[in-house]
Amino acid sequence: MRTQTKSIIALAIAAGLGMSSSALANTDNSATVSQTIVTAGDVLGQEAFVTQTGDRHTTILNQEGDEQTATIVQDGYWAEAYIDSKGLGNNVEVDQAADWHLADINIEGNDNEALVEQADFWNQANVVISGNDNFVDVMQDGSQNEAVVELLGDTNSAIVIQEGSGNFSVFRVEGNDNDGDITQYGDNNVGGMVSLDITPNLGNNNDVEVYQEGNNNLGAIKGVAGDNNNFLVTQEGDSNTGFVYSLVGSDNEIEINQEGNSNTAYLALTTGDDNDVEITQRGDNNTIGDTLVADIQGRDNNIDLELEGNNNGAEFQVLGNENDIDLDQEGDTNFATFGIYGDDNDIDMSSDGDNNEILAFAAGDDNDIEVHQDGDTNFGYADILGSDNEVDIDQDGNENEALVTVIGFDNTDVEATQNGDLNLIDLIIMGDENSVMVTQTGDGNWFGGEDESAFVVEGMDNSLMVAQNGKDNLVTGSQTGMGNSISVTQTGDFNSAVVIQN
């Protein structure tokens, strides 16, 4: 059985009517093409080609059947195209030129392809495809552009390129093996894969890449549940924001690259295991975490943070076990705060510059914290709550300060090393069977604080070793408990040691 229905109302349909586009210019254009083929046998379906040039354009095209092809070309002023295509092997192409543009494409079926290209000024494109092996390509040139792509199914792909300012593009997908590539040039651009409502973007093996160049851009990944996803956000310019929000899954790769000033990278409500997070910021006044603390929850995650510039800040927390965290800051007046809650985690934080602050917190067992600072007037703080933890603070420069607080048992390796002049180390140990080593090299160093609080070691069977090399060094403090030991070695002039044991 074969059923075919055609309805054509057109002032500008070049193909099928034998009219040239020049003969149809400067008119109020409107075209409606509806083709329907239903058959039980093999058939080659419909083909429609619409060309409209000049004035106010409107094209409505509906095709149902097999092996379909639709091409709409519209030229200047007011252009609108609505396409509804159902079947297999569909191909839809819309080319719109200057001024007012709107393209709405809705496709149901397999092996579908939709291409939308829009030129300057007011462009909009909305493409919804449901099926397998679908492909969407949206190209917008100018300002006030908007593109929304929704793919439901397997092996889907979407590419959106926008040039200009005030652009907006969304890649929304539900299914497996989906690809998304969003590139934006200009100012006030938004980004990709942001959920349009409260529902998440579901799917596995998705590959989303957002590239933005300009100012005040927002690149975002929101509401993704699945494994083996790859998210890349690259931003160049000032006042940009890149964030990953509400990600549930494992074996995901998240990479945010920002180059410019006053940028923010934010990671929140991220849960899963074996995830790889890499955030790189180059410029001044950049922030990881913003007013909220970036966080990830899970185990066996790798987190690599790199900041280059001045007045940059990072606030991050990890909830889980066996995570590996690396932070590298280069520049002056930077700060970093890292909190980790779990067991068997490794934290390595380093800064190169002056007036930098690094704070590390760990609650759990078998955690390892390392803080390295090169420069002057830096502050390093390590706070450990738990057992079998290791702390290593290394400062190279002048007028640096280190504060170490350990509460727990069997923390066998607590080290603080300072090279330079007029450095200070404060130490608070509460617990049993802890081992601490303090090394200071330089002039005018002292260990134990500037006031009467000095250093405090409370507990049983604690071991404290202090080595000072230089002039005008001071050791002061107290040990309280049974079976504690302290060893003080001072090399240089005008050294003083005061230790009280109770």
Automatic annotation (TrEMBL):
GO biological-process terms attached to the record: cell adhesion
Matches recorded under InterPro entries: Curlin_rpt
Protein name listed in UniProt: Curlin associated repeat protein
Family under the similarity heading: Belongs to the CsgA/CsgB family.
Record's keyword terms, sorted: Signal
A Pfam family per the record: Curlin_rpt
Signal peptide stretch: 1-25
Cellular component terms (Gene Ontology): pilus
Protein origin, superkingdom: Bacteria
Organism of provenance: Shewanella violacea (strain JCM 10179 / CIP 106290 / LMG 19151 / DSS12)
